[in-house]
Structure formats: C-alpha cells, structure tokens
Design goal:
Radius of gyration: 29 Å
CATH superfamily of one domain: Glycoprotein, Type 4 Pilin
Number of strands: 5
CATH class of one domain: Alpha Beta
Shape: globular
Distance between the termini: 68 Å
Structural class: alpha+beta
Oligomer: single chain
C-alpha cells in the first residue's frame, strides 16, 4: 500500500516538474480570455446534408402508382424496397409511414436510397401513398416482418377493399 502511494506521489511530482520546465520563458503566463465576436453578416455554420446514394433498385419505384400496373404490384415494389433495406441494415425501418419513407429515401445511416426523394408515391408530408392518394399503413409484426396495407379505392382503412401484403410473401 505504501509503495503505491509513493509511486503516485513520484508520478505527480514528475508531471509537475515537466510542466514547470515547459512553461514559456520560465514564467507562468497569465490566463487571458479572448472575447468571441459574432458578425451580424456571418451565417452560422450548417453541416452539409450527406449525399444520398440512389440505388439501382430505386428504378423500380418509378412504377409505383403507374396505371399500367396493379395495386398488388405497388405493394410488391414496396416489399422489394423494404427487403433491400432489411438486407443492408439487418432489420426493417421503424416508425410511422413518414419515418419509413424517410429511411427508404436515404435518411438512414449510410444515406442509401431505395426510393427517389420525390414522386407520385409521396404526399406533401413525405408519406408513402397508394394510387388513391391515401397513405399506406405499415404494421411491424417483428423486426423482420412488416405488413403493408393500402386502403383501396374507397380510401378508408380497414374495409373490405383494402389490399394487404405480408413482407417477403
């Protein structure tokens, strides 16, 4: 125990001697505080947004809500995009429609985009919408399984004309 205390005291004395030897001009300099001057014309530094890497798979997104394909095809395309995200990150994006859309359009840790940031498949709030302009409902059944629901032509969720797809099926 005494050896440890002596070793610590010797170490502290050595550090103090080194700092004393390294002081400028052999004298201790008085501490000064320089004021921070903010120019009214200077813009605050804003970090640049990361560049989004649009993946080749995103070309499929151009077919979302296309009259030449069906709503089942739309759900299949979304399933494909979620599958790509899942393969990259080991799980599905989480949250409500807006957060899932954000993750698929490149607001994720690697700035990878499975969907372009704009198109007929996104509304003004950034939600993924079906061909009847109704936001999709995403139900995470687990970290690996998502149910995607379109309200269908009546634009009302949970009615007989809803179209549902289970991820990966």
């Amino acid at each position: 125990m005494t050896r440890r205390i002596l070793a610590r005291v010797a170490l502290a004395a050595g550090i103090a001697a080194l700092l004393y030897a390294l002081r400028p001009g052999g004298k201790t300099a008085p501490a000064t505080i320089s004021p921070v001057v903010h120019s009214p014309l200077a813009a605050p530094a804003v970090p640049a947004a990361p560049e989004v890497n649009l993946l080749p798979l995103a070309e499929e997104a151009a077919r979302l809500n296309d009259p030449a394909v069906t709503v089942q095809d739309d759900l299949g395309i979304l399933d494909l995009m979620l599958g790509g995200y899942h393969r990259q990150y080991g799980g599905n994006p989480v949250g409500e429609n807006e957060e899932i859309a954000a993750a698929l359009t490149g607001r994720n840790p690697r700035a990878l985009a499975w969907l372009p940031a704009s198109g007929s498949f996104l509304d003004q709030k950034g939600r993924l919408i079906d061909r009847w302009d109704t936001p999709y409902f995403f139900h995470a059944q687990s970290g690996d399984h998502m149910q995607i629901r379109s309200a269908g032509p009546d634009r009302k969720m949970w009615t007989d004309d809803d179209v549902v797809r289970e991820q990966g099926r």
